[in-house]
Specification:
Elements lengths: L5 E6 L6 E7 L2 E8 L10 E10 L4 E6 L3 E6 L14 H8 L17 E3 L21 E8 L8 E3 L4 E2 L3 E3 L7 E2 L6 H14 L7 E3 L8 H24 L4 E4 L4 H9 L6 E4 L2 H14 L7 E4 L6 H4 L3 H5 L5 E5 L2 E7 L3 E7 L8 H23 L3 E6 L6 H15 L6 E3 L7 E6 L7 H4 L13 H16 L4 E7 L1 H8 L4 H4 L3 E6 L9 E7 L3
Parallel strand pairs: 1-15, 6-9, 7-21, 12-13, 15-16, 19-20, 23-24
Antiparallel strand pairs: 1-2, 2-3, 4-5, 4-8, 4-14, 5-6, 8-9, 10-11, 11-13, 17-18, 18-19, 20-22, 21-22, 23-25
Helix pairs in contact: 2-3, 4-5, 8-9, 11-12
């Protein structure tokens, strides 16, 4: 049964994976996933210890959470850390100062897309050694999960997210989300928040959800965060380093909080316990009843299948994305960047320029959705089909940029160059389905290229033929290459060697290890 309107599907019935999907008129528009062995720790706050300072990187490596090692860059260290006499808790208390409480600096505008016009990157005169040293203890928050062999990204700029406001002790001002565009509403929120925090040193940001909320609701949300902040500092003072001092909510409730917005009409949950937790969350937001319908899915059919979303979810694991009319995207993730190729396929708009423009417009509307659903991160390069007309290039650029505005992740966006390439950067949220669910292919070693098997086979034959007399030979090869060679009943047996096989998936397909041990007796 397809859903109409804007809905959230919360699939927690299966303990192996928690999935929360945002759906608009039957189309998957957002997704959050979590697994017991791959749970996101973004938002968790730890008492941590600096283990190593790298001057060349302007960064430090920090031990936290059961001796995991995280990465703390100079730009994520608060200036107050220059005072080495301050303990971790004293440092946090030191920075909760609001010098200019009525400033409207909108630091929460991570959803806005910044356009890159030049390469002006000013170099800070500060050095990492001015702020930290090996053995120093700090309160840090995880801002990005570990990826591959790269540790989690940490920050001393700690924040606590509520339903309507975000507490940011290190901000030193009040901020309003840029998604709230009405100037009267912005001014109303600014005045209400200034009154609410007048007796507190803790500054806040009004979230988009704060729009049209009465002052008493904002005040209650702020007081909850204020109490949480004080309990956090108490826990940090009583804990031994390293220690977890504040843990984020359960993956399901957290995902609902992140995906919740004013236009949401319905939430469907397939487990009673999570249903109750989300009901509490909605009551805190004052969103139960007429505003948001909360329903329990108690049928035997899986939730995503019941609402015709499972197929859309599974397509996120494929490289090729159909655009309609025969056009498609091909998305490939590499170590350095994500490449997105736009193909016109069978699409025909009667002439080359119109075909390119029509295909690129379809692609521009889909690329942002795929980046959000797959949680693509780093540098993303889009290879659009070449367009001769400047107005077409500008329109495709504007379309992609406007679509990217719907993404909560922080981004920077460039322009279409002379080769039809357009790049943008996106910070991962750590909730995408692909990375925890995918593993390198054992056949092609994640190259996607079967021709390496032929190359490995030829290498073995050359080596065996180079031996003047029959030998006892040990061949250590990738499983896929070894299986091909073992099936050869013509060429290899004719060479007369006695071969011992060792299958090893760690050996690259095209680089088998061949060791001639000793000649065979006549």
């Amino acid at each position: 049964m397809a859903l109409n309107g804007t809905c959230l599907l919360v699939n927690t019935r299966d303990a192996e994976e928690v999935r929360v999907a945002g759906v608009l008129d039957g189309q998957l528009i957002d997704v959050r996933t979590s697994r017991p062995d791959h749970q996101s720790i973004v938002g968790n706050i730890y008492l941590a210890e600096v283990t190593r300072v790298e001057e060349g990187l302007d960064a430090a490596f920090v031990s936290f959470d059961n001796r995991k090692i995280g990465f703390l860059h100079l730009g994520n260290i608060h200036p107050a850390a220059k005072d080495f006499n301050l303990s971790a808790v004293e440092l946090m208390r030191k920075i909760e100062v609001r010098d200019n409480p009525e400033s409207d600096a909108d630091p929460s505008s991570h959803s806005d897309v910044e356009v890159i016009e030049d390469d002006d990157c000013g170099e800070s005169p500060d050095k990492i050694n001015d702020f930290v040293f090996a053995g120093r203890k700090l309160l840090v928050q995880v801002v990005r999960d570990s990826v591959g062999n790269k540790g989690a990204t940490l920050s001393t700029y700690v924040s606590l997210a509520g339903s309507f406001v975000v507490l940011m002790p290190s901000l030193d001002r009040i901020g309003i989300s840029r998604r709230i565009e009405d100037e009267d509403e912005r001014q109303r929120l600014r005045d209400d928040l200034a009154d609410i925090v007048a007796d507190s040193p803790l500054p806040v940001i009004a979230r988009t959800a704060a729009m049209l909320q009465p002052k008493k609701v904002l005040r209650a949300d702020f007081r909850r965060l204020e109490r949480r902040w004080q309990s956090l500092l108490t826990a940090a003072q009583e804990s031994e380093c390293p220690a977890l001092v504040l843990e984020e909510e359960s993956p399901a409730v957290r995902a609902v909080r992140e995906l919740f917005h004013g236009g949401l009409e319905k939430i469907v949950v397939d487990q009673q316990e999570i249903y109750a937790a989300i009901e509490v969350f909605l009551k805190e937001k004052g969103a139960t009843g007429a505003r948001v319908e909360l329903a329990l899915h108690d049928k035997s059919m899986p939730l995503f299948e019941s609402h015709a979303i499972e197929d859309q979810y599974q397509r996120l694991f494929r490289q090729k994305v159909p655009l309609g009319k025969g056009a498609s995207l091909v998305i490939q993730q590499t170590e350095a960047l994500v490449a997105i190729d736009v193909n016109s396929g069978r699409l025909d708009a009667h002439n080359l320029e119109d075909t390119a423009f029509t295909t690129n417009m379809l692609a521009a509307k889909e690329i942002s959705r795929q980046a959000r659903l797959r949680d693509l991160g780093g540098i993303i390069v889009v290879d659009f089909i070449d367009m001769r007309q400047a107005k077409h290039r500008r329109e495709v650029e504007a379309t992609l940029r406007n679509e990217l505005m719907n993404d909560r992740a922080r981004m920077k966006c460039g322009h279409i160059g002379s080769f039809g390439l357009m790049s943008f950067t996106r910070r991962r949220t750590g909730n995408g389905p692909l990375r925890p669910a995918a593993a390198p292919c054992r056949v092609c070693s994640a190259t996607g290229n079967w021709t390496q098997i032929e190359a490995g086979k030829f290498r073995v034959l050359r080596k065996l033929r180079s031996l003047a007399t029959p030998h006892k030979v040990l061949i250590r090869a990738h499983n896929s290459l070894a299986s091909v060679l073992k099936r050869d009943t013509n060429v290899i047996p004719e060479l007369g060697h006695s071969i011992e096989w060792q299958d090893d998936i760690k050996v690259p397909v095209g680089e088998p290890v061949i060791q001639a041990q000793q000649p065979l007796a006549d």
